[in-house]
Amino acid sequence: TPDPVGGLIVRDPADGKTPNGILRDNAIGLVTAARPVKSEEERREAFKRAFDHLLSMGVTSVCDFGDIDHLAGSHVTGNAERVWKDLDILRAMDDAGELPLRVSHYPPLADWERVAEIDFRDRMFRDVKSDDARYKTYGDRTRLRLAGVKAFLDGSLGARTAFMREPYEDDGDNKGVVVCDLDEFKERAVAADAANLQVAVHAIGDAAVDIALGAAEAMKDLNGHRDRRFRIEHTQHLGAPIESQPKRIAMAGAVSSVQPEFMRLDRNLAVKRLGRDRAARSYAFRSLLASGVPLSGGSDWPIVDADPLAAMDVAVSRNVGGDDLDDSADGVWEASEKLTPQQALTMYTTGAAHVAIMSGEVGTLWRGAHADFTVLDRSPEDLGSTKPPKVVSTFVAGKCAWGRCKRDDKL
Predict the structure, then answer these.
(1) Which DSSP letter does residue 4 get?
(2) Is the pLDDT of residue 138 over 70?
(3) pTM for the complete prediction?
């Protein structure tokens, strides 16, 4: 079996032919395509369990890029039909008043024309006159929107498939993997932008970030200046000098969605894979902010934990317990990139709303916004120095959706 485009079937080095059981990136689709198919009802129930789990962590809005098991090969038009079927499930749940939180859905970039053909009203949280009857809330809207499109450029650090400018420290002939045709990617990204769609791009390695930036700059040159908020998902490893790519991101009017919890996942890999200098330019949240790049905090769940408070905590402390991250041997990963508690909280509230083009609707308790909020057992102002606060209850549109909903309720 040949390697699929954007994927690797790892083979026994003895003969270079026999698969050793490890599949990377788009090669995973060879297995997921053969799995038994879950029924629509099973998937609907899975959504309900997932939403309840997210509400228990204080999450009131999510950006959904599709089931990871069905995204391998999504660079091919029509190759991610499961994502569209799941969108139908979400629409049905929304119509039945069964969405307990807000969902911004991003189908694959390869299907951008299909997204562009959908009525513009379905790309927003639509006003519905019967909201009060359905949700018993204060003028809520439907909770599902078709927000934009998403593409993948590279893989991950752990698999050595994140696309890097220079070879991996522990694999000198390998710079990573590009998982799509780059000319086709740029053409689609520019076309989707011209259709007024927000474009999000997975870019982990510094070379992948360069490619993403090339697309963002092409959009600006070919389609003109506007507030498009091109999303670079992860922006995980920056090139040298460290301020160069953040400045380009800001100049292009792009935004960055970052996942601090990945630091725990990569804590004992970064130096081995990249060496100390490149590892020090990883998860460079403070450098991004210093260059004026708007940041959104996320999780990439289920790859890592969905808990936003734990993610904020690690963004502030950067104490991930790694053995070889710096000379201080205290487990702190590049202390110069620590955020303040306020900066971390902003990433997961108004910052996340800004990056998702939802400013003023969510992420704030300002007049006119949805009454979506989380009650904590204490203030988050000491994030990074003690254990994170715990969620007491989660409210969506003024209605308690999880937890202790009345003063005398017990968790």
Answers:
(1) P
(2) no
(3) 0.88
